[in-house]
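Protein 1 of 2
SEQ + STRUCT:
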Amino acid sequence: MTRKGVTLMGVSGPVGKRSDQRVRRNKNVPVDKIEAAGPVDAPELGLTDPHPIVVDLYAALPESAETQYWEPSDWQWARVQCHFLSQLLWSRKPSAQMLQTISSAMSDLLITEGSRRRVRLEIERSQSEGQLIDVAALFRKQMEQAGTG
């Protein structure tokens, strides 16, 4: 399967390790790496009385890097799965089979680490670079300003 120039090939079996965690490096397996660019536009969830967990899940999707490859139909598919997940979570008798079906459908959208690894897709979220503060220098400066240093 190809999405916007990225070839997605499924692999059966257990979820592989991330490329930087593999010990055996003589096996040259290409890995597509995506640098998260930030949130993308997503349609409103638009469900009547959705479960709070579903609201949180759907709100997290636009912040996830894999959604940069999503087409409008993928967003609608996510909404459909959220509809059924909300019904399941509100149900007095939740169905394990329904949860498995929803989980499988959501995995097709690559929203879990395991599903992304199966198609050899890794997200490398850039960490914000914090400013280092010299606490001792800051304390000295405050003492000097106060006239006690």
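Protein 2 of 2
SEQ + STRUCT:
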Amino acid sequence: MMEYALAIATSLTMLAGAFFALAGAIGVVRLPDLYSRMHAASKAGPVGSGLLLLSAGLYSGELAIFARAAAGVVFLLLTAPVAAHLLAKAAHDTAHRLWEFSVRDDMDGR
């Protein structure tokens, strides 16, 4: 019974991770400008990768491997937003244009 529950949990986390990774990839391809693409990549990417890491940790069945996978998830969730912020700030500082239908630029300073 326990093996069946573990297989179900592994399958669900793997499917959820694949869904988030796919959503992030579609967002990177379909969104109109650098800033919104970066938003899709920095939100859905780490969640999808994190869930896939957790599913691998669950599948292993060993606590040490699951702990490493959980540490990887924490690392992804802490570093991805910081990296996206720094990339967006660098793009804004080099005058990378917003999408033409953007409502406002919060970093404009006006």
